[in-house]
């Protein structure tokens, strides 16, 4: 493993420390929690990413953790925030695997840019909200651009609308609460409480699966849909966004297993 020397990322936006850029839909400073989730690294120092593997960062402010891939090697580290400055952040003890990379890989440029980052700004796109984060160096020049992964939209509370094509109604309907950054699932099967692990694939933004799903063991009414719901959940391999409040979970052949509405 190779350590990257401490590098400070003071996240400061607005009129005090704004990055120098061309025309963009930048928005005023936002809560640092808006950085939570997974982000694709799309350019470094104005150059398109060249990589062996998808380059991305996953940020979790509450847990003070960062991990991802620099386009060749896995990276992770701790996040340090400053209670006296809500826009300040630094990454501590960042380590990387040591796999050999193709000659023109931008891995080194990404690591250098992370080391040089001193501020950030966010870019919004209408109703889609924040879609990009731009990191800047001490001279306020753009050096790293990240785009939000669509899968982040799944984070939150959802209620099952359809199961295997049938509209659900009544008192006992499954619910799902997902935390994509942490890979956690919990909710109700319509009868029992459940929790499990969410698996995603950095090389396929639409891939998702649920493993190690455990439930309580309360006896359920005879007409309860717990069993078919859990069976369908086990078959999920991908998701499809219908709109910001509706998503479908699909099986390996593209059949819609579960439709969810955001609560």
Automatic annotation (TrEMBL):
Keyword Signal: yes
InterPro entries per record: DUF306_Meta_HslJ, HslJ-like_sf, Hsp_HslJ-like
Position of the signal peptide: 1-18
Pfam families listed in its UniProt record: META
Transmembrane segments: none
Domain (DUF306): residue spans on this chain: 36-124, 155-259
PANTHER family: HEAT SHOCK PROTEIN HSLJ
Protein name: META domain-containing protein
Species, as recorded: Coprobacter secundus subsp. similis
């Amino acid at each position: 493993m190779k350590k990257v020397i401490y590098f400070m990322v003071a996240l400061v936006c607005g009129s005090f420390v704004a990055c120098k850029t061309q025309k963009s839909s930048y928005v005023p400073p936002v809560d640092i929690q808006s950085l939570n989730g997974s982000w694709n690294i799309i350019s470094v120092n104005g150059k398109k990413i060249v990589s062996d593997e998808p380059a991305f960062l996953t940020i979790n402010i509450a847990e003070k953790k960062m991990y991802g891939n620099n386009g060749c090697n896995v990276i992770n580290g701790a996040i340090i925030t400053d209670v006296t400055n809500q826009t300040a952040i630094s990454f501590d003890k960042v380590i990387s695997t040591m796999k050999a990379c193709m000659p023109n890989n931008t891995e080194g440029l990404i690591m250098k840019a992370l080391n040089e980052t001193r501020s950030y700004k966010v870019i919004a796109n209408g109703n889609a909200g924040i879609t990009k984060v731009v990191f800047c160096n001490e001279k306020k020049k753009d050096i790293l651009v990240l785009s939000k992964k669509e899968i982040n939209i799944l984070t939150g509370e959802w209620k099952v609308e359809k199961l295997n094509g049938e509209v659900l109604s009544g008192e006992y309907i499954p619910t799902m609460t997902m935390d994509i950054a942490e890979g956690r699932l919990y909710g109700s099967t319509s009868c029992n409480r459940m929790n499990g692990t969410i698996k995603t694939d950095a090389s396929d933004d639409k891939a998702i699966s649920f493993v190690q799903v455990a439930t309580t063991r309360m006896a359920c009414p005879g007409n309860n849909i717990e069993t078919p719901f859990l069976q369908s959940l086990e078959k999920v391999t991908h998701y499809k966004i219908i709109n910001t409040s509706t998503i479908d979970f699909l099986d390996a052949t593209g059949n819609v297993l579960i439709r969810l509405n955001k609560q």
